[in-house]
Each structure stands twice: as C-alpha cells, then as structure tokens.
C-alpha cells in the first residue's frame, strides 16, 4: 500500500484549509486507498527560509523530520488556501527548504478559498514552483470554493456524496502517478 503525506500548509489563526486536510485523511482511510498522515506546517513553525536543508550546518530536528516524511512518502497532497492570489509563505518556506526530496515526487494540489472561485488563482504559481524543482505534478486539481459553508471545522463536507465523487477522480490520478513512478523505478 502506498503512503501519502497530506501537507496542511496554512499556519494562520482560524485557518479553514485544514478542514480539507482532515477530510482527505478520512477519505483515504475510509476507502482503504493508502496509508496517510497529515504533515501540518503549523506544527513545524519553520523560520523564514535562509538556506536549503542540505546546506545547513546544524539543521533543526523538525527540519530533518519534515524532510524524512517527504522523502518516505510515495505521493504528496498539498492543501493550500489562496491568500491574495498566491499561496502562503509557510508553504513556500517548506518547499524551498528541500530539493532532492521533491524531485520526481508525485504531488497533487487541493486549493481552498472562502470565495466561489475555489483558489483558482493560486494554482499557476504553485505548480510553477513545484515544476521548477522537478516534482511530478498531477494535472487534476481539487478546488474547494466557499470553504466556510462547504466543510465544517472537523472536515466533514456538507454534501459528502458530491465531494466524495470529486475527490475520487483527484485521488485516482495521484494513485496512478504513484503506480507509474513505482513501475519506472523498479525497472
């Protein structure tokens, strides 16, 4: 069984995107699709980026732990809110901290917004950043609009049937990329 890390990227007080991370964790578990864990950037509280992990003289234990979680994951789901058309600095920090760990890693992106657009403005800049470091980007995006009414604080969607249907295609794409990568690396 594959292992997927779900990165909850917002560290903001009163964050809403974490609801989607909780939902995805439950979805993967309920459907027995992969082992998973939420990698919560709020827990890590990284300082402002000053150097890649591999170039640091004395990296913190939390940075080493984060790097190992990414390295050991078969695939990644990034759950990101849209802040003023971009993604949070906490996510940029975490991405820039690592390099080799992201290389050829299948990554799917779930965007979250309080508006009706579901974080559509954040996707291009985040995909470009991940592409530049050699990640394998899953083309299908899970866009969640109106987060405050779409999910409750525990990550339960108001319309579970419809959300599960959307999520199935999203997760199926990520699992396909994971499978292809495993096949390619076993040759």
Question: Can you describe what's shown?
Answer:
Helix content is about 40%, strand content about 20%. The chain is globular and about 50 Å long. The chain has a single domain (about 5-185), classed as Flavodoxin domain (Rossmann fold, 3-Layer(aba) Sandwich). It has seven helices and five strands, in the order βαβααβαβαβαα. Helix 1 (about 20-30) links the parallel strand 1 (about 5-10) and strand 2 (about 35-40). It is α/β, with parallel strands linked by helices and about 190 residues long.
Low-pLDDT regions = none
Structurally, the number of domains stands at 1
Q: Structural class, from secondary structure content? A: alpha/beta
- Succession of helices and strands: EHEHHEHEHEHH
Main beta sheet, described? 5 strands, parallel
Measured as a percent range, the helix fraction is 40-55%
- What CATH architecture label applies? 3-Layer(aba) Sandwich
Cα separation of the termini: 19 Å
- Beta-strand percentage range: 15-25%
CATH topology: Rossmann fold
How many DSSP-defined strands? 5
Number of helical regions: 7
Short key terms for the protein model shown above:
Rossmann fold; 187 residues; alpha/beta; 42% helix
Topology:
Elements: E1 3-8, H1 18-30, E2 35-40, H2 41-44, H3 61-72, E3 75-81, H4 89-97, E4 106-112, H5 123-132, E5 136-144, H6 147-150, H7 160-185
Parallel strand pairs: 1-2, 1-3, 3-4, 4-5
């Amino acid at each position: 069984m594959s292992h997927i890390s779900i990165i909850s990227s917002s560290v903001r007080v009163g964050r809403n995107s974490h609801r989607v991370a909780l939902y995805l964790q439950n979805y993967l578990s309920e459907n027995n699709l992969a082992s998973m864990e939420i990698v919560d950037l709020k827990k890590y509280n990284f300082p402002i980026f000053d150097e890649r992990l591999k170039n640091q003289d004395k990296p913190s234990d939390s940075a080493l732990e984060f790097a190992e979680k990414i390295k050991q994951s078969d695939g990644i789901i990034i759950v990101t809110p849209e802040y003023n058309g971009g993604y949070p600095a906490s996510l940029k920090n975490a991405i820039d901290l690592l390099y080799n760990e992201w290389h050829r890693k299948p990554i799917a992106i779930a965007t979250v917004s309080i508006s009706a657009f579901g974080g559509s403005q954040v996707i291009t800049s985040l995909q470009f950043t991940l592409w530049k470091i050699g990640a394998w980007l899953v083309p299908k995006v899970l866009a969640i609009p109106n987060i405050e009414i779409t999910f409750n604080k525990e990550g339960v969607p108001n319309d579970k049937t419809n959300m599960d249907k959307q999520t199935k295609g999203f997760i199926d794409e990520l699992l396909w990329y994971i499978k292809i990568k495993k096949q390619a690396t076993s040759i």
